[in-house]
Design goal:
mainly alpha
Amino acid sequence: MKKLLEFGRKAFFYAKVLSGYEERRIRNYRLMLEKRLQQAQEKKLALRKIPEQTILTEVRAMVEDMQALNKKLEETEAAIDDYFKPINTQAEILMKQQLEGEEQTMTEMMKVLETKAMIEEAQAQKPAKADQIGASNTHTQETESPTKQEAQMK
């Protein structure tokens, strides 16, 4: 019975081969294998690209986060500047007042120093004038003395 079954299978196989059924089946199987192979290669390429894409998406996300952070920092800085603007203006006003006060004290000190220098100069010139006056007085007295003596003699 086994031999009969085996003979039937072989006969059936030959009938398939002769009719072209087996050839079509083999061709379909080969095409299916080629499609699977092509899909596997595409998956392989996709898997190779996935790390690149993952890295790129992570980098993009990081860049976006950094841009958002920079924007928040700029907004915070602007808010801080707005908050301290009145204080800064008051500080500038105070600084100007202090500088004006210092300038006034400096000008007053310069005036005081100038007057002091003039007083000292005048005091230094007084003895010199006194010497000149004394010398001129003695000179005038000497010139007047002979005339007085002449007048007394007459």
